[in-house]
TrEMBL record, chains A, C, E:
<dbReference type="Pfam" id="PF03977">
    <property type="entry name" value="OAD_beta"/>
</dbReference>
<feature type="transmembrane region" description="Helical">
    <location>
        <begin position="309"/>
        <end position="328"/>
    </location>
</feature>
<protein>
    <recommendedName>
        <fullName>Oxaloacetate decarboxylase beta chain</fullName>
        <ecNumber>7.2.4.2</ecNumber>
    </recommendedName>
</protein>
<keyword id="KW-0406">Ion transport</keyword>
<dbReference type="InterPro" id="IPR005661">
    <property type="entry name" value="OadB_MmdB"/>
</dbReference>
<keyword id="KW-0813">Transport</keyword>
<keyword id="KW-0915">Sodium</keyword>
<keyword id="KW-0812">Transmembrane</keyword>
<feature type="transmembrane region" description="Helical">
    <location>
        <begin position="195"/>
        <end position="216"/>
    </location>
</feature>
TrEMBL record, chains B, D, F:
<comment type="similarity">
    <text>Belongs to the OadG family.</text>
</comment>
<dbReference type="InterPro" id="IPR005899">
    <property type="entry name" value="Na_pump_deCOase"/>
</dbReference>
<keyword id="KW-0472">Membrane</keyword>
<comment type="subunit">
    <text>Heterotrimer of an alpha, a beta and a gamma subunit.</text>
</comment>
<comment type="function">
    <text>Catalyzes the decarboxylation of oxaloacetate coupled to Na(+) translocation.</text>
</comment>
<keyword id="KW-1133">Transmembrane helix</keyword>
<dbReference type="Pfam" id="PF04277">
    <property type="entry name" value="OAD_gamma"/>
</dbReference>
<keyword id="KW-0406">Ion transport</keyword>
<protein>
    <recommendedName>
        <fullName>Probable oxaloacetate decarboxylase gamma chain</fullName>
        <ecNumber>7.2.4.2</ecNumber>
    </recommendedName>
</protein>
Length: 433, 83, 433, 83, 433, 83
C-alpha cells in the first residue's frame, strides 16, 4: 500500500501547479499555431513540445541536478548544499537564490554534491547546456542559413544594404521602449534585458537566441517565442504599415531587372564581409563568421558535400536540440511573469518600427534616385524574416500592379537585414555584454 | 535610473550609427570588389546556374519535383504500353 | 634492444588474458550472428565490434583515465590516487575498489590526478560517457523510433493496447525470477539488478539500455546483448508457445478490416499519450516524451525535414555510438561472470512469459467479444520486438488460413508493447531507482 | 532476504497493476479523442496517404523503386528512340 | 563619446598585429589554393577559414577562457590567476607560461576563475577541445574513410602491402631529418615533435592530425597544413621522382588483370587486420580499429544505413569541425615561427623519400618476380594520398603505354599505405607518446 | 643531444622494422584467409556488384546521373506530348 501511495504522491496529477498547467496549455497552443496555422513550425513544434516537457510536474526535465535536489528537499542534502554555498539558512528558496548567484567554482561544487545525493541534470537542461549555453547551436544554424542564402540579388544592387540598415532601427527603438517601461516603473528591465528584447526586432531567430543567451538567459523562453511568433505573423503585421506609408503610385513602381552576378563575386562577398567584420566589430565575429563560412561553402563550388550537410542533416539536428532547449525555458516559474507580457508587447512594436523605417528609407532612396526606380515596398523586407518579408513585398506589389514582381528585388534588403541585425547584435554584446 | 536612460540612448545612437557606418562600408567594399572582378575576371555568359538553384531549393519543392517526375514517367510509360 | 623489448612486452599477444581472448571470440560470434544470421545487425555489428575493441589488451579503450593509470601501476601514481581516495593501501585492486565506490567529487579529483600522470579515458569509455551515461543515446533512438512508428492500426483498434499491457507480465515475472535466484543463493542480484534484467522482457532495446544505465550499469553489456539477441530470435522463440496456447480454430479467425484513421487523430495521439504520462508517471517522461515528440514530428506534416533527419542521419549516428558504447561493457572482467548466464537464462524466460501472457489475454478478449473476432495470434505481438513479432503473428496466421493476413492487426499490439514497456520502465525507475 | 522478496512481489503487483491502469486510461482517452475528432472534424475520404508511406519506407524499398524508375525510363527511351 | 572610443579601441583595425595580418593573408591564400587550385578543398576551405577567424583581433575565438582573461588583463583577475597558478608575478606572459605548464587540476581551477571574471572559451577553442583534444574527430574521419575504402584490389594482390610498407620510410627518414636539424642547431625539435613531423610523410591527413594532437599539439596547424597541401601537390611532387627511378621499359610493363575477390574475403579482411592489431600493436587500435569498423560496416551488407551515414552525413559534419579546429591553431603566435618553415621543408622531403622508396621497392619486387609482372610506377602509390597517388601512377603508365591502365593495380599499394602509416603512427605513440 | 640522435635512430630502425614485420604478417594472414575462404566457401560467379559500386560512387557522379535522368525524361515527355 505504501508503494501505491508513493505512486500517487509522485504522480503529476497530484503535484501539478497552476502555473505548470497553464504553461502546458501554452505549449499546446504553440503546437496548434505551428501545425494548424503554419507558424514557423520548424522551431515552434520543438519549442512547444519542449515547453510541455519542461512543465511535467516532478519530472524535473528542465532543471539542473542542484535544482532537482532542492526540489525534493531532503534535509541532509539541503544542509550540505547550504554549507557549500556558504549560507546559514537551509531553506530551499534561499539555497536556490544563493546557487543562481554563486560563482563558477561554487556552482561546480554544488553540482557534485547534488550528484552524490543521487540527483542529475534533467534531459532538457543538458540539451540547453550543450546547445545554447555553449553558444554552439545558434552559430551552427547561422552557418546553415549562410549555406542556404543566395547573395546574388544583394550583389546586383548593393545599395539595398541601406534598407537592411534602416530596418534595424526597430531594434534600438525597442531598447529605448524597454528602458521607458522601466523608468516609468511598469516593468523592471536591466540594460542587458532591454538589449536582448530589442533584438527581437532583428526578426532573426538564431541572432535573437544567441544574443539573449549571452545577455539575459532568463528571458530566453519569452524572447524566442516572441521572435518566432512575430516572424510568422509578418504577413499580418507588415501590410497595413506598408500601405499607410506608401502612395499607390509608389507601390506601382516597376524595378529594372537585376544584372547578372558572376560566380567570382559570389565567392568573394562572404570574404569581403568577413574582413570588414574582423576590422570593425570583432564581437560580431562568431555570428557573421559562421554565416560567411556557410555561404562560402555554398558558393565556392568545391565542397558541395559539406554545404549539403550544413544545410540539411546538420541544421536539422541542431534545430531539434535548439528548439527543445528553448522550450526548457518555458517552465512556469520563468515564463509566467509580467515581464513576458512586456516582451511580447515590445516585440511587436519592434517589428512595426523596423518595417516602417525600412519603408521610409526606401522612399527616401527612391526620391533621391529620381522617384521612379525603387519601389518602397521592398524596404519592409529589410527587417529580415527571410524569406517571408520578401514575399510580403512581392504580394503587395502584385496587388497594385499585376505585372510587378518584386520578389528578387526584395531579396536584397531581406538578406541585408540578416547582416544588419547581426551587426547590431555585435554592438549590443560589445556595449552591454 | 538616469543612468539606464543614458545607457539606452547612447546604445541607440551609437548602435544605429555603427550599423549604418558598417553597411555603408560594406556597400563601398562590395561595389569595389564587383568592379574589380568585372574588370579583371569578366564572367562568361550567364550560365543557367542549374546547380545552385537546386541547392537553394527548399525540401518541399524537391518533393514536388519528384512527384512531377513520377507523374511524367507514369504518363510516358502508359503511352509506351498503349502503343 | 630495449625498444624491441618494450614493443614485445607491450604487445597484445604478450599480455592477453584468457578472459580477453574469450571475449574477443564472443565479439566475433556476435558479428557472425549479425552478419550471417541477420540478428538485429544494426545494433549487434557495432556491439560485437565494440566488444572486440574493448578487449584489446593494453589498449585500455574501454577504461577511464583512472582505470588506465591503475592498470599501468606506477608506484607514485598509485600513491597519489590512494591519498586522493583516502585509503591507506596503494594496491591496485584496493584503489579500483575505492574509486568505483567514491563520490562524484572524489571521482573528479582522481580523474585529474590520472590525467596529470599522462593517462586518459579510452575512446570507447568516452563514447559511453557521452552516449549512455548521459542517457541521451537511448532517448534519441526512441525519438527516431517514434518518427518511424505508424499508430494507425492501434488507433483503429485501441483495445489492442490491452495486449501490449498483458505481454509486459514477462517483465515483472522475470524480476521475481531474479529475486528467486538470489534467495536460493544461485546468483546474487539486487532489486535494481532484478528490475533491469526484467526489462529484457520488454523486447525493446533502447528501453532496456536506458533502464539498465540508470539501475544497474555494470550489467549493461549482458542485458543489451540478451535483449537484442532474443529480439532476433523471436521467430524461433514465439511460434511454439503460440501454437501450444491456441486452437486451430482460433488461429483461423479472420479479423475485420481496420477502419480508416484520420490525420487529426494521428496528430493528437502522441499529445494525448504525453499528457497521460505527464499526469500519471513523470518518471516515464524522458522515454515516452521523446517517443511522442518523434511521432508528432512525423504526423504533423509541417516539419518533414526534421522528421526525416530524426529517422535517418540522426538515428544512424546515435546507433553507431550506442552500439560501440554497449560493446565497451563487454570487457572480460565485467561480462565473464556467472551473473551473465543468469541474465541470459532469465531473459529468455521473460520473452516466453510475455508471449504467453499476450496470447492468453488475446484469447480472453476474443472470448469476451463473442469468440470470433480477435485472433489470439496477435497477442504475442504485444511483447513489442517491432516489427518482427507482428510478422511472426502474420506468418502463423497464414499457416492456418492462407487468406488470413494478420500483419496490420498485429501492428496495434506491437506498438502498444513499446508503450507498455516504457510505462513499466517508468514504474521500475520510480520504485527502485 | 525477505525484504528482497517483498520488494520483488510488490514491484510485480504494483508495476503490472499500473501498466494496466495506464493503458486502460489510454484506451479510454484515445477512444474519446477519436470520437471527438470524428464528430467535429470528420476526415475527408481516405487519401492514398502517399507521403507518409514514403517516409516509412525502408531504404531497401526506396532503392528498389529507384531501380524500377530507371528500368521504366530506359524502356520509355528505347521506345522513343525506336520511333 | 566614451562609447565611440570604446568601439574604436576595441575594433580590429586598431588592434591588429602584424602577425595577425600576415596570418589572415595566409588564410586567404589557403582558400585561394583550395577553391581555385582545388587543393584538398574539403579540408583546406575549413582550415583556411578557421585560420582567418582565429586571427581576428580581440575576438579571441581560438583562445581558452584563461587566455582571453589574460589578454584583457584586468589587474584583479591577473592577481587571482597568479595566486591560483602559485606564481608571484602577475605579468600576463608569466601567467600564460605558468598556465600552459600547469597540471590538469590547476588548469581547471584557473578556468573557473576566468569564467567567474566573465571570460569564456572562444568558439574555435571549444570546437578544438571537442573535436581534436578528445581525439574523436580524426577517428570518425578514419571510420568514414574505412567505409569508403574498397580493399578488393589489395586482396587480389596482397603482396602490394609491401609497397605500402616501403613508402613509410619517408616517415622515419624525416624523423631523422628533424633530429639532424636540431643537432645542427638550426631548429629546436623534441623527439615528439620530430615524430609528429615525420608522420606528414604518411600522406594521410587524419593520421597526421591524430598523432600530432597526442605528441605535439602546438605544431598541429603547421603539420596539418603541410600534410594536406603536399597531398594536393602529389601530382607535381611524384612524377619527376618516379621518372628518375624507372626505365622506360619498366614503365611499359602491363600487369595482369586482378582476380575476382569474393564478398566473404572482403568481410573477413577488416577482422583479420583488427586481430593482428590487437595482437601486435595495441597503440594503433583506436585508428585502425575505427578504420576496420567502417570497412566492416561497408562490406558486411547488413548495416547499409549506418555505412551510408558514416561516409556521408557523419564524416561531413566531422570534417567541418575538424577543419575549423585545425584552423584555430593557425593563430599568429603559434604558426609564425621558424619551426613552421622547418616543418614545411621536412614535409616535402618526407613525401619525396616515401615516393622513392615505394618505387624502389616495386622495382625490387619486379626483379624478384622475373622482371615483367610488376610495374614499378605503382610503388609510389604506397605513400597513400588516396586516390591521388594511384591516379598519378595510372597517368604515368598511360604516358608510356596508352593501353596500360594501372589504376586498379595502384589502388592496392594506395590503401596499403593507409594501413602502413597507421601502423607507423602506433609505433610512434608507443615509443615517444 | 646524443640522446636525441639515438632516440631518432632507434625510432627509425624499430619503427620501420615493425612496419615491415606487421605488413608481412598481414600478407601472410590475408593470403591464408583468402585460401581458406576460396576452399571452403567458393564465391559464386562474380556478380555485377551493383550495390557496392553505387555506394562508392562520388557525389558528382550521382548528380550527373540525375541530370541524365532528367534529360531522358524530358525527351520522353516531349515525344509523348508531340503525339
Ligand atoms: Na534583421
Ligand atoms: Na514491450
Ligand atoms: Na601512408
Amino acid at each position: 500500500m505504501e508503494k501505491l501511495l508513493t505512486l500517487l504522491t509522485a504522480s503529476g496529477i497530484y503535484n501539478i501547479s497552476g502555473g505548470q498547467f497553464f504553461m502546458i496549455l501554452i505549449g499546446l497552443g504553440l503546437l496548434f499555431l505551428a501545425i494548424r496555422k503554419n507558424f514557423e513550425p520548424l522551431l515552434l513544434v520543438p519549442i512547444g513540445f519542449g515547453g510541455i516537457l519542461a512543465n511535467i510536474p516532478e519530472a524535473g526535465l528542465a532543471y539542473s541536478a542542484v535544482e532537482n535536489a532542492v526540489h525534493f528537499a531532503k534535509p541532509e542534502v539541503l544542509q550540505t548544499l547550504a554549507s557549500v554555498l556558504n549560507i546559514s539558512s537551509a531553506d530551499p528558496h534561499d539555497i536556490l537564490h544563493a546557487y543562481h548567484g554563486s560563482n563558477a567554482s561554487t556552482h561546480a561544487t554544488a553540482s557534485l554534491v547534488a550528484q552524490d545525493a543521487g540527483y542529475s541534470n534533467g534531459m532538457l537542461y543538458n540539451f540547453y547546456l550543450v546547445a545554447i549555453a555553449s553558444g554552439v547551436a545558434p552559430l551552427l544554424i547561422f552557418m546553415g542559413v549562410g549555406a542556404m542564402t543566395d547573395f546574388g540579388p544583394l550583389l546586383a544592387n548593393p545599395k539595398t544594404l541601406f534598407l537592411g540598415a534602416a530596418a534595424q532601427f526597430g531594434i534600438f527603438a525597442t531598447v529605448l521602449g524597454a528602458v521607458a517601461l522601466t523608468l516609468t516603473g511598469v516593468m523592471d528591465f536591466s540594460i542587458q534585458d532591454a538589449a536582448a528584447i530589442g533584438i527581437i526586432g532583428g526578426a532573426d531567430g538564431p541572432t535573437a537566441i544567441y544574443v539573449t543567451s549571452l545577455l539575459a538567459p532568463q528571458l530566453l523562453g519569452a524572447i524566442a517565442v516572441a521572435a518566432y511568433s512575430y516572424m510568422a505573423l509578418v504577413p499580418l503585421i507588415q501590410p497595413p504599415i506598408m500601405r499607410a506609408l506608401t502612395t499607390e503610385a509608389e507601390r506601382k513602381i516597376k524595378m529594372s531587372q537585376l544584372r547578372h552576378v558572376s560566380k567570382t563575386e559570389k565567392i568573394l562577398f562572404p570574404i569581403v564581409l568577413l574582413i570588414l567584420v574582423a576590422l570593425l566589430l570583432p564581437d560580431a565575429a562568431p555570428l557573421l563568421g559562421m554565416f560567411c563560412f556557410g555561404n562560402l561553402m555554398r558558393e565556392c563550388g568545391v565542397v558541395d558535400r559539406l554545404s549539403d550537410t550544413a544545410q540539411n542533416a546538420l541544421i536539422n539536428i541542431v534545430t531539434i536540440f535548439l528548439g527543445l532547449s528553448v522550450g526548457s525555458k518555458l517552465s512556469a516559474d520563468k515564463f509566467l511573469d509580467v515581464q513576458t507580457l512586456g516582451i511580447l508587447l515590445l516585440g511587436i512594436v519592434a517589428f512595426g518600427i523596423g518595417t516602417a523605417c525600412g519603408v521610409l528609407m526606401a522612399k527616401a532612396m527612391n526620391k533621391m534616385a529620381g522617384g521612379n526606380s525603387i519601389n518602397p515596398l521592398i524596404g519592409s523586407a529589410g527587417v529580415s524574416a527571410v524569406p517571408m518579408a520578401a514575399r510580403v513585398s512581392n504580394k503587395l506589389g502584385l496587388e497594385s500592379n499585376a505585372q510587378n514582381f518584386l520578389l528578387m528585388h526584395a531579396m536584397g534588403p531581406n538578406v541585408a537585414g540578416v547582416i544588419g541585425s547581426a551587426v547590431a547584435a555585435g554592438v549590443m554584446i560589445k556595449f552591454v555584454g | 535610473m538616469d543612468n539606464l536612460l543614458s545607457e539606452g540612448l547612447s546604445l541607440m545612437v551609437f548602435g544605429m550609427g555603427f550599423v549604418f557606418v558598417f553597411l555603408t562600408l560594406l556597400v563601398i567594399a562590395t561595389g569595389l570588389m564587383s568592379k574589380v572582378v568585372t574588370k579583371y575576371a569578366p564572367a562568361p555568359e550567364p550560365k543557367p546556374a542549374r546547380k545552385t538553384a537546386r541547392q537553394a531549393e527548399p525540401t518541399g519543392a524537391a518533393t514536388a519535383k519528384n512527384d512531377e517526375l513520377v507523374a511524367v514517367i507514369t504518363a510516358a510509360v502508359h503511352k509506351y504500353r498503349s502503343h
